[in-house]
Amino acid sequence: MRYQFDFDSLRDYWPAFLHGALMTLEMTAVATVLGLAIGVVLAIGRRGRSRWIAGLCGTYVEIVRNTPYLIQIFFLFFGLSSIGLRLPIFAAAVLTMVINVGAYTAEIVRAGMDTVPPGQVEAAQALGLSTPQIYWDVILRPALERVYPALTSQFVLMMLSSSVTSQISAEELTAIANNIQSDTFRPFETYIVVALLYLAMALLLKFGFHLFGQAIFPRRRRLGTPL
């Protein structure tokens, strides 16, 4: 079989492609900020002295990490609507991304916090630092610096996984592509364009995270440590 490529038929749909890409980046930006905040709180809770808080945080992490992302979306969008709690499509998509990435971020941050030597914490306590100061200056900042590459990779994976939200008609890139290919009957060309756009967005995010890491972790920049 000989297939004739026809990308010209997609020329009029570039505004729709760009709209979907911008929506994907917007969802990713919100989920990154909120997911990181939730992940840090969960990591601190899992390492805390309170057993019930640690157990609660651990239960959350294990449930989210061991259930499919698609099922989580369906639960929040279709499941909650069946009991009268109907979320807007964008809110349900972003909330699912936040809940999902928060659990994975918690484990990454907790692994970084576990690498901090206990002697440093004891020295900080001997110097009279408060608990918030110890957590921020002695534990959390060095931990985030160590696991920053893993965190950024997780956020890029989250952006790529946002394509699943097309199942609830969120107007991100994959959903836009589904509509375009149904209009043009050119699925091969459509998804080639979409794949290239996802690749471009992933590279853009990696570059942005690299610049951000250079700004907030000057010590790694001076030492030449990759971010």
Q: How would you describe what is shown here?
A:
This protein has a single domain, classed as MetI-like (MetI-like fold, Orthogonal Bundle). The model has no long low-confidence stretch (mean pLDDT 91). Helix content is 77%, strand content 0%. The chain has 227 residues and is mainly alpha-helical. The protein is built from 9 helices and no strands.
Ends apart, CA distance between termini:
47 Å
Shape: elongated
* Secondary structure: number of strands: 0
CATH superfamily: MetI-like
Query: What is the CATH fold-level name?
Result: MetI-like fold
Helix share of residues?
Answer: over 70%
CATH class: Mainly Alpha
CATH architecture: Orthogonal Bundle
The assigned structural class equals mainly alpha
Mean pLDDT over the residues: 91
Write a brief structural summary.
This protein is mainly alpha-helical.
Summary tags:
227 residues, mainly alpha, MetI-like fold, 77% helix, elongated
Describe the protein's topology.
Elements: H1 14-46, H2 51-65, H3 69-81, H4 89-114, H5 118-126, H6 131-161, H7 173-184, H8 187-216, H9 218-223
Helix pairs in contact: 1-2, 1-4, 1-6, 1-7, 2-4, 3-4, 4-6, 5-6, 6-8, 7-8
